[in-house]
Amino acid sequence: MRKWHRWAAIPAGIFMFIIALTGVLLHLDMIRVGHSPPGHEDQAPPPVQPMPAAGEIGPIMARINAVIAAHPEIPVTQVTLNLTGPAVTVEAGAGGAPGSPMLKIDAASGKLIPQPPVEPDFHNVLQDIHAGYIAGWTGRIISILRGISLIVLRITGLETWWTMRKRGKKKGLWW
């Protein structure tokens, strides 16, 4: 069991080092640019628009379908109605990681709201590395595998500790 523990510790240690390093750098970058942590902003919440009436939903969906049909390069599997902000907007896309392709549409006019491209600044690159988004699906699979390696590390560590404790080998333990 100690061998399993040792081999699970190697990838877990490498990835935990990357996660810890990018997490610290993300916080330092937020301090550098003067941002407060999420949820601690002093800004007033954006205004909330009223829900469109039942009779307005049909025309809104027709406008959304027209915009989606004009952009076949973006696969749409989910549509989100956003009531916050100065106007009711609709976001249509495949979902997924932040920054994935999506259409933002003004619900009243049916016009596409152009999204400015996200510049790959230091903070966004660090966030993509930290979350595993930089490698796409491979990064997500690696994130799952590193979680599994931490579970294996935890179980094998407890088993090794329990075996040593039962044998009375208390020397070398933390206490």
What would your notes on this structure say?
The chain is mainly alpha-helical and 175 residues long. The chain folds into 2 domains: 2-38 and 136-166, no CATH class; 45-120, no CATH class. Helix content is 51%, strand content 9%. The chain has a 3-stranded antiparallel β-sheet, with helices on one face. Strand 1 (78-82) and strand 2 form a beta hairpin. Helix 1 packs antiparallel against helix 3 (122-131) and helix 1 packs across helix 4 (137-166). The longest helix has 32 residues, at 2-33. 6% of the residues are buried.
Query: Which structural category fits the helices and strands?
Result: mainly alpha
N-to-C SSE string, H for helix and E for strand: HHEEEHH
Q: Any idea how many domains?
A: 2
Pick out the low-confidence regions.
none
Mean pLDDT: 81
Tell me how many strands there are: 3
Query: How many distinct helices?
Result: 4
Alpha-carbon distance between the termini? 22 Å
Write down the overall geometry: elongated
- Helicity level: 40-55%
Q: How many whole angstroms does the radius of gyration measure?
A: 24 Å
- Order of strands side by side in the largest beta sheet? 1-2-3
- Portion in beta strands: 5-15%
* Sheet with most strands: 3 strands, antiparallel
Keywords: Membrane, Transmembrane, Transmembrane helix
InterPro entries: PepSY-ass_TM (IPR005625)
Transmembrane segments: 7-28
Protein name: PepSY domain-containing protein
